[in-house]
Design a protein that fits this description.
The structure holds 2 protein chains of 2 kinds. Chain A is mainly alpha-helical. Chain A has helices at residues 3-17, 19-31, 37-42, 48-58, 64-76, 94-129, 134-148, 151-165, 181-187, 189-215, 218-225, 230-267, 273-283, 286-313, 316-320. By secondary structure, chain B is an all-alpha fold. Chain B has one domain: MetI-like fold. Helix content of chain B is 70%, strand content 0%. Chain B is built from 10 helices and no strands.
Amino acid sequence: MPSPLRMILVRTVLGLGMLLPVSAVIFFAVSLLPGDYATEVLGQQATPESVARFRETLGLDTPVAQRYVAWLTHAVQGDLGKSYASHEGGARPVAGIIGERLLNTFFLAGVTASVAVPLAVGLGILIALYRDSWVDRLLNSATLAMISCPEFFLAYVLMLLLSVKLNLFYSLAMVDAGTPLSARLLRIALPVLTLTLVITAHMMRMTRTALISILSHPYIEMARCKGLSPSRIMLRHALPNAWAPIVNVIAFNLSYLVVGVVVVEVAFAYPGIGQTMVDAVRARDVPVIQACALIFAVTYIVFNLAADLIAIATNPRLMHAT
Amino acid sequence: MTQAIARPAHIRRPSGTSVVAWTALVVVLIYIVAAIFAPLLAPYGEAEIVSREPFLPWSREFLLGTDQLGRDILSRLIYGARNTLAIALATTLLAFAIGVALGTAAALARGWMDQVMSRAVDVLMAIPQLVFALVLLTIFGTSIPNLVLIMAVLDSTRAYRLARAVAMNVVVLDFVEAAELRGESRLWILAREILPNIMPTLVAEFGLRFCFVFLTIAALSFLGVGIQPPTADWGSMVRENATLITYGDPTPLLPAAAIALLTICINVLVDWYVSRAGRRNAGS
């Protein structure tokens, strides 16, 4: 078998194989819960019989390994168990709580990515073209500032300036299933802007670095000697060879989005999965926490795997390596 | 499986910007002074309710106004420096103690021990840190010792990876072999031969990891699951007073700005240290 194909295969198997131990860690970590959840919910006065009945309905009376296998097989089939905390006449299924909010989060992340990625690559090309000029230095300082800020700082600065002072956008991103697309886009403008600022900086710097390291190659010198314009050299000669590291860093930043959404969703009260998880943590709603953590971990692993695979697939040197 | 890329925190800037570096150093020192002498500097107590009215505006009496319970915001900001810095520093130190000890041990031992530890670290790092911290804090409860311990264990994975990687390059060198042939113990070799040689890399990484831990703990506190009231800390101060933002009052941004400024300054100092260390190596 040719080596790059085998490398891709090995990485994929290893990456997806990571899902099993990760799901086990999430499940067993939560099973360590000190104190008995049943006694805690029912209160001190609960009779041993009612505690036993409650434990039975939650399935807490079966051995932990058996529960893990059941949880995993159900989770794969889309059944994430029943929530402990939200009742509404009988325990609600976790999938019902999470489903719509997961779509909201994907919508937020998707819009952010479609704004941030072209912006970052565009700016990266620009500052590679005008490297060591004032534009470069300005964006370099701005990058350091963006990376150093906590997300909630950016979120509230934008809220104060753009929504409260200038009244341009909504300060809270409340949406529900009935909100039409145009209103939805307007309402999530500030969260998208916050997340864009957070992830654009790094992608932009890496685009610049990738391009500049290629500019030192002899064939670029050749193109310059032919009298080609700097922008043509950049776009037609340097950029095609820089795609591998750029796409890799894009995938990595998208996996960072997974974590970034948690804080931003809470700051803007956006009904996404990050907000759901934080609420579940406060309510100690174990099945919801497990499900959210699993979804976050899977997304994170898949994006990191994609970054790895793209790095291999787009590097012709690896294709010919023995 | 995935590359060990920490959150991008190091932006290389051209060397020779020592004015910037000195400013950053002064700022960091101011933070440290505020943290150490908080009780002397703060006009009121950390959790002292000084006004019956919440959310008072800035005034001569309360320079930055009062918060949602009528506590002096300036005092809480100063005490916040103490709590936030101490917790982040303790966490990072503990994370490095665990990570460097295990990482260098793995590099020296190799074989199955290295494999077991490295695969365990792979698994831990495959779960986003903030999400994992949320899960663990639910289980063990949100107290300060738990927060420090959980974040330290989660972050020690990064220190482990780095320490193992750099130590791998050192253990193959002749002087380590010489020490082994002399019959020195493993511990002696770790402490006297390997550690001094990987120290510069670790110091630079320490600064960056401190920033990361600091930001993550602030985020957890902002989410309401980190440092708990009435302890003053910058992340939860933002959350508690966030409603003021909608009235156009920028006060809740101050603790967040304090976090941002410190992170920027430490980044600048780390870059300065790295470029100086680089020049020293190039010179010798």
